[in-house]
Each structure stands twice: as structure tokens, then as C-alpha cells.
Amino acid sequence: MKDILFLLAPGFEDNDRREFCPECAEIWGVLAYFPAIKESLDIRYQPIARPRAELVAMLGKANQNCPTLVLSGQIDAGPHAVVHKIGQHRFLDNARDIAKYFAHRYGTPMPRGS
After folding, report:
1. Parallel/antiparallel/unpaired status of strands 3-8 and 41-46
2. Per-residue pLDDT for 114 more than 80?
3. Distance (Å, whole) CA 111 – CA 114
4. Is the N-terminal amide bond of 51 cis, ω within 30° of 0?
5. Coil, helix or strand for 23?
6. pTM (2 decimals)?
7. DSSP reduced 3-state for 12
């Protein structure tokens, strides 16, 4: 089973213009630096509009942030990432914690300032 990475699609419509999510772009940057990680993820795009049904079904209404990485099984997230838990799901809800997890799990460098 793969970790599930929820991202907003690049170039969505909001505020009467095209926009992108800076934190989602940060994660795409990490995946561009280290493309082997991408193969180990189930990447799912979410709409900008809320409720984001798939995230709500998995993590509840209060946890619709993107990027969010839902960890598969009981994988060790390492000592630096803040892991949240809802029911049976463990997850990381921001780009920096996701990057710290990638560093722990895949041996990539740690994000600066961490």
C-alpha cells in the first residue's frame, strides 16, 4: 500500500483568476528534485472548493488542507515530522512535515531551517 498525497491541481480558478497553492508547489519541487519518491506515492488532486469529499471521508471536515500526506500502515515518520491521527489514519498536513518525512523515509536532505 502506498502513502496517499493530496494536492491541489496546479492552475485552479479562485478569486476570479487562475492561482496555484504555494505549499503544493513546494512538494512538487521536492518530487522534481527526487523523482523516485513519486513512484511510491498515490497522488490525488483535490478541488479548491470545500468540502473536499475524499479528504473529509478519510480525515473529517477539520482536515481538508492540501498538501496532506496520509501514511500507509504504521510506517515510522521519523523524529522531526508532526504526525496527526484520526481514526485509523495517520497523516502530515503541511509541506515542511511532508519533506521531513521524505528525508527520514527516503534519505533526501532535510528542508532548510528544520
Report:
1. parallel
2. no
3. 6
4. yes
5. helix
6. 0.95
7. strand
**Region label for 39, one of left (φ > 0), alpha (ψ between -120 and 50) or beta (otherwise):** alpha
Amino acid 97 reads D
Would you give the distance in Å from CA 106 to the centre of its chain? 15
Question: Which residue in this structure is represented by grid cell 488542507?
Answer: 65
State how beta strands 84-86 and 41-46 pair. Answer: unpaired
Exposed, middle or buried: residue 41 (CB in 10 Å: 0-12, 13-18, 19+)?
middle
Could you read off the pLDDT of 66-96 as tens digits, one per residue?
999 999 988 899 999 999 999 999 999 999 9
Instruction: Residue 69: name the closest of 35, 40, 107, 49 by CA.
Output: 40
Which SS3 state, helix, strand or coil, does residue 99 take?
A: helix
Q: 40: phi > 0 → left, psi -120 to 50 → alpha, else beta; which? A: alpha
Total residue length of the chain: 114
Q: Which three cell numbers stand for residue 74?
A: 504504521
